[in-house]
């Protein structure tokens, strides 16, 4: 049996607001049924995986954290855009022959932008 990633789910406080951040970052629309409780981006565009955002008022201690890795040939522009949308530049890394920047989204979830 072969598995494929269908969705990446992000626990958050306001699903629609966080979906909007990622929709602008990736230049794809938030799906029309978005609410503070549940939102998706990428389903109507065929993006894979689809990003889903689910309201979780109290995060469970010890629960796996979501970590998204993006890549861009123009990573500096992508970093600037993320910051302009409300993200926070956390740090620059160069390990294992790979370079990337780590960014926090408006709710503090970390993601990386690889320098390709």
Automatic annotation (TrEMBL):
<dbReference type="InterPro" id="IPR041581">
    <property type="entry name" value="Glyoxalase_6"/>
</dbReference>
<protein>
    <submittedName>
        <fullName>VOC family protein</fullName>
    </submittedName>
</protein>
<dbReference type="InterPro" id="IPR029068">
    <property type="entry name" value="Glyas_Bleomycin-R_OHBP_Dase"/>
</dbReference>
<feature type="domain" description="Glyoxalase-like">
    <location>
        <begin position="8"/>
        <end position="113"/>
    </location>
</feature>
<dbReference type="Pfam" id="PF18029">
    <property type="entry name" value="Glyoxalase_6"/>
</dbReference>
